[in-house]
Design goal:
By secondary structure, this protein is α/β, with parallel strands linked by helices. The protein has helices spanning 20-30, 58-69, 85-95, 119-129, 140-147, 154-166, 210-223, 228-244, 260-267, and strands at residues 6-11, 34-39, 41-46, 49-55, 76-79, 102-104, 135-136, 173-175, 184-189, 194-199. The strands form three sheets. Strands 2-1-5-6-7 form a five-stranded parallel β-sheet, with helices on both faces. The chain has a three-stranded antiparallel β-sheet with strand order 8-9-10. Strands 3-4 form a two-stranded antiparallel sheet. The termini are far apart. The structure holds adenosine-5'-diphosphate (ADP) and the ligand Cc1ncc(COP(=O)(O)OP(=O)(O)O)c(N)n1. Ligand LCLJCK34 binds next to strand 3 and helix 7. The ligand Cc1ncc(COP(=O)(O)OP(=O)(O)O)c(N)n1 binds at residues 11-14, 19-20, 43, 45, 80-81, 107, 110-111, 139, 207-212.
């Protein structure tokens, strides 16, 4: 068997291609990692919002997980949209003995404002999934929901990061700064030291799936055996290029450009 690095995304679908499983697989491929996927919910959505959701049964999610992990080379896992506590418990039960690098993207609300998970899922996320996480990647509203505290100031963000690691058990956290003003600065904490990752803020409406893409890039790099610091650094560069070189498609908040990173890397500039 060739030395192939594989990453598994456990998430919902986005037929418009910009978020969810579809964004994850594109990102894995662009970072030269073999992508695999387990679907939690089938979502009818596009750049204008969510029209409908059909959840798969937790038992069938477990069957999908067994199909992949019993056969394929999985070196890192990402969780995205997981809509309810039954799903979270089934996924955590399967992942716990595997002890694989795990990136938890605590998806709760779509950019359109549509809720993607139920309120019981939040407690299950804290109790079952965060203790297994190598890294968790909340945006500002998600970090506030997880900690039950508002994140108004920089100090609040530092406190929230410490709480997520020391109280909820995640090995590390990056609180993403897309919802802030000014530069796009993300706050990383590994239980010992803080580090910020900053890029210019690009003036664009098209940020559908930024969080999904960013977390998938972290997962791909972890699958390759990179350190947390290296993985977050690559993911930041990846998502910044994907936003800067937006495709301007869709009639609402369009997707990011998943090939911008490699295009820029290959040619020194985006052409
Ligand atoms: N307009 C923007 N310009 C540059 N980077 C951005 C912009 N919006 C978000 N980002 C970056 O994209 C990544 C995803 O963050 P964010 O959008 O906050 O997550 P989510 O999509 O989960 O809400 C982070 O690295 C963030 O700093
Ligand atoms: C299936 C699915 N998962 C996640 C999302 C969230 O994507 P988006 O709405 O663009 O928000 P961020 O990824 O930017 O947090 C989704 N819409 N669908």
């Amino acid at each position: 068997m060739r030395n192939v690095k594989g990453a598994l995304s456990i998430a919902g679908t986005d037929p418009s291609g910009g978020a969810g499983i579809q964004a994850d697989l594109k990102t894995f491929q662009e970072l030269e990692v073999y992508g695999m996927s387990v679907i939690t919910s089938v979502v009818a959505q596009n750049t204008l919002g969510v029209k409908g959701i059909r959840h798969l049964e937790a038992s069938f999610i477990k069957e999908q997980l067994e199909s992949v992990t019993n056969d394929m080379p999985v070196h890192a896992v990402k969780t995205g949209m997981i809509a309810n506590s039954e799903m979270i418990e089934a996924i955590a039960e399967h992942l716990r003995p595997l002890t694989l690098p795990l990136c938890v993207d605590p998806v709760m609300i779509a950019q359109s404002g549509d809720a993607l998970v139920d309120h019981k899922a939040l407690q299950a996320m804290r109790d079952e999934l965060l203790p297994l996480a190598t890294i968790v990647t909340p945006n500002i509203p998600e970090a506030a929901a997880l900690t039950g505290r508002s994140l108004e100031s920089e100090e609040d963000r530092y406190d929230a990061a410490k709480r997520i690691v020391h109280d909820f058990g995640s090995s590390s956290v990056v609180i993403k700064g897309g919802h802030l003003d000014g530069e796009a600065t993300d706050l990383f904490y590994d239980g010992d030291t803080f580090k910020t990752f900053t890029s210019p803020r690009f003036d664009t409406l098209h940020t559908h799936g930024t969080g999904c893409t960013y977390a998938a890039a972290i997962t791909a790099e972890l699958a390759k055996g990179k350190s947390l610091n290296e993985a977050v650094s690559v993911a930041k560069t990846f998502i910044s290029a994907a936003i800067e070189h937006t495709l301007e498609i869709g009639h609402g908040q369009g997707p990011t450009n998943h090939w911008a990173y490699q295009n820029t890397k290959r040619k020194g500039e985006y052409v």
